[in-house]
Design brief:
This protein is an alpha+beta fold. It has a single domain, classed as 3-Layer(aba) Sandwich (Extracellular Endonuclease, Chain A), CATH 3.40.570. The chain is built from four helices and eight strands. The strands form two sheets. Strands 1-2-3-6-7-8 form a six-stranded antiparallel β-sheet. Strands 4-5 form a two-stranded antiparallel sheet.
Length: about 180
């Protein structure tokens, strides 16, 4: 009888600890077929996103796709982007991975979503993504997006962190001497 009670208490304690790590753990690294990300659950934003941009054909349309949460990971959500100046900015661009529906859908994970000022997302960021697709016509790119935050971190009303700036690094291959471009 005492062993059963002790086992139940131990089971409950382990469950609580595992849930705490899953929900409140600081950073989590995730890799799928499209991108690799180091995601901060406390900031509810990626710290960096890495992907390969190659000359893929456009075979599917994003239609009315929207971002989705990943089970067991504390990410930003639709409420974070409601009634403010921020867009759901893709890290790995949807247009780059519209070769098939599975790849396209993976770009709509909140793990790949950066809180971006609407003018940045619809302006210079969009133009940089278009340039990337021009470059990948002739070269395979490794792209790393680093996301930075002020100290102390600024947050929106729902508590998601607001990035202070982004760094986009393009590694171009094959190039005889190798090239890296920073933006």
């Amino acid at each position: 009888m005492k062993t059963t009670i002790l086992m139940k208490k131990l089971f409950n304690l382990i469950t609580i600890l595992l849930l705490s790590v899953a929900v409140f753990g600081q950073d989590i690294k995730v890799k799928n077929n499209v991108f690799e990300v180091l995601y901060s659950q406390s900031l509810e934003q990626p710290l960096w996103i890495k992907y390969r941009s190659t000359n893929r054909p456009t075979n599917v349309n994003r239609g009315h796709m929207d971002f989705y949460k990943e089970p067991g990971i504390k990410t930003s959500d639709a409420e974070d982007y409601a009634k403010n100046i921020y867009d759901k900015g893709h890290g790995a661009p949807a247009a780059t991975f519209s070769d098939n529906m599975e790849n396209l859908k993976q770009t709509f994970s909140y793990l790949n979503c950066i809180l971006q000022d609407q003018y940045l997302n619809r302006g210079e960021w969009r133009l940089l993504e278009e340039q990337e697709r021009k470059w990948d016509d002739t070269e395979n790119l490794t792209v790393i997006i680093r996301v930075y935050f002020d100290n102390p971190v600024k947050r929106i009303r729902t508590n998601a962190a607001i990035p202070s700036h982004l760094e986009n690094i393009f590694g171009l291959k094959p190039v005889k001497s190798g090239s890296v471009l920073y933006f």
